[in-house]
Fold this protein.
Amino acid sequence: MLADLVDNNIVNLKVELIDLEPCKKQLRFSLPAEEVDAEFKEVTKQFQKQANISGFRKGKAPLDKVESRFKQKIEEETKKKLLNDSYRKGVEDNKLKPVLDPEVEEVEFKRGAAFSFIANIETAPEFELPDYKGIPANRPKVEITDKKVDDAINHLREGRAEYKEQDRAIKDGDYINVSFTGTIDGKPITEFSATARGLSEQKSMPLHVHADGDHDHYIPNFTNQLVGAKKGENRTVDVTFPDDYPAQPKLQGLKATYEVTVDEVKEKVLPELNDEFAKSWQAESMEKLRNGVKEDLEANQKGEANQTVKMQVRETYTASLKFDVPPSFHQQEKQNAVQSIVRNRRAQGATEEEVAKDTDQINADANAAAIDNLRWFFAHKRISEEEKIEVSREDVLRVVAMQAQQMGKDPQAHIKELAENNQIGYIQNRLLEEKVVDLMAEQAKITEIDPPEGEHDHSHSHSHSHG
């Protein structure tokens, strides 16, 4: 009933649809003069009902009085109503899906004359959705070897290491605290590089002793010259900064002399692997601890294996999409991609000159990324419609509560802030994407492959601070 009321004066609306370019359409509207006048009359009656004109009861003033009194407002309202109603009817009748507000131009409008205008519209892409079930993907097999369990337990053991003070000479592998001053040709090192204050003088600096000087984390061959010294002893240490010393390019290749005092000598003592150690990790025995560690490693590897499947199905699927995307979305997305690539380049240490030199490459990469992202965006929305996948309010609140907890914020305050910054939509979209990818991964055609060599080992070297 309401629709009839809205469109009662645009029965003879003519709409011409013109395809400009992919995702860009033009609608040309025209409406005969008698329908324009009927709309004027309709709007004037609405004003009459509300009008307060002296000498008349509310709503009882004659139409000509109402017309002359509210002439401009009636015109504006009529024009707005004709534009909106015509546009909506044109979009519905042509089954268009606009993604932005239209650009309206060439509006011809006055009382007693035909009404016409042009609307330029950006629309969602029209495309055949490729099959998203049965996408091929490789999943690494989950294999937890005894060595991996041993490595993980050693990792736990390292975390409980104690550094015990020793009253003896320094040996390889000890942890020491030293104070020193360094000079080059008798002058403070800061004269050669102003930013090298830390290399010029230190009080009670912790170091790990490496008898093999090349493995010294500080300056090659620094700590190996302290082997055999005791607490309180002074030693002179001569070093040469390597030609590729990254921390201080100005010192590369220079020889320095250090006067070093040994403040403390400590040995790293690892706890014994026994039931007591197991209990400190909430396990009743070493056997239970090993089983628990194995289960954790399995769960992690399973999670990682599933993650690789999800990445593959999404990438493979995106590569199969071949439709055009709305131009203004494309521009915006490309800009975002350029900024993201430049940020990453800078984070990896690229200079402004290097970034400027690579402008063409950056633009090409950003363009490809933007088109992929947008194709995926429209495709995953379509998949979610076909599969009736939805994101509930609870889903969003769960994520918001987790974020708030990680940031140490009050959940209510956090959700309010997100809403004010229009971030809730982003969270909804991310969750929808995840659900779509989960479905695609569940229905993928999986090939089990051997896990890559050397992965998931916890035998990384860890430097421990000790106080």
The radius of gyration is 37 Å.
